[in-house]
Design a protein that fits this description.
single chain; about 250 residues
Length: about 250
């Protein structure tokens, strides 16, 4: 993960163009997307207006201990079991079973199930593909697709001057797309979005060769290493950069 949100070289030009863009009409695509992204960030506890500490925000973004376990255990169980037994059906069954248990517990406790349910669906889809092809490495194929989609979205949004980070923050801070008139904000949001694109690209660059080599153990291990351990610091950098752009009002 890149944590450089302060670079000011000429490559930031796409985000630093003069503010000649016509004002957005109410209900425009950018406002709708910004509202959706900002709403998701707020539900995840990433609202700069709340004034929470960086540690608290990063912990909330990861979902606390439960979110970490829901994210890590299914993949970890698959990698460990397949490495030891080479039994694809057993390894996939345990992985899907763990994800199902997490979802069931949330349902029983009447807690939000969006993240757990999404993880369960992804786990089941990946397992089904792996069973269909008979290749254990295909259990990670869905992750490549999502990383490619997210990375492309962050990169393209930055290059066209509408970085996703800016759209989300603009909604959270109640300024819509007005941040585009501020060169400092445009530059920061540009580089933050590039950093997120870099994270997703790095995962693909490192993990795809292992996928084609059918090295399941190394692939699964690096997927875990390049997951939350890299996600958390970039959340912290993003949070700190946004707080610097929107300092709390003096009391």
């Amino acid at each position: 993960m890149s944590d450089d949100s302060r670079s000011e070289d000429a490559s930031a030009a796409p985000a630093d163009s003069p503010s000649t863009t016509p004002p957005e009409a109410p209900g425009s695509a950018s406002e709708i997307l910004g509202a959706a992204l900002g709403g998701a960030a707020r539900r995840a506890g990433l609202d700069p207006a709340e004034g929470k500490s960086t540690g608290h925000v990063v912990w909330s973004a990861m979902g606390g201990w439960r979110g970490i376990l829901e994210s890590v255990l299914p993949s970890l169980a698959f990698v460990v079991l397949f490495t030891i037994t080479k039994e694809l059906v057993l390894s996939l069954g345990v992985s899907v079973g763990i994800a199902a248990v997490f979802t069931a517990v949330r349902l029983i406790q009447r807690q939000p199930v969006t993240a757990a349910l999404g993880g369960l669906i992804a786990t089941v889809a990946a397992a089904a593909l792996s069973l269909w092809t008979g290749r254990a490495a295909d259990n990670f194929l869905w992750g490549f697709v999502t990383n490619g989609v997210y990375g492309t979205a962050f990169l393209v949004s930055a290059l066209v001057g509408w970085p996703l980070i800016g759209l989300a923050v603009g909604f959270l801070m109640g300024e819509g797309t007005a941040w585009r008139a501020d060169r400092r904000k445009r530059r920061a949001f540009f580089w933050l979005s590039i950093a997120w694109a870099g994270l997703f690209a790095a995962r693909l660059v490192v993990q795809l060769p292992l996928y084609f080599a059918n090295d399941v153990t190394a692939l699964g291990t690096l997927k875990l290493v390049m997951g939350l351990p890299l996600f958390a610091p970039l959340v912290a950098v993003t949070w700190l950069a946004v707080r610097a752009l929107y300092p709390p009002a003096p009391k």
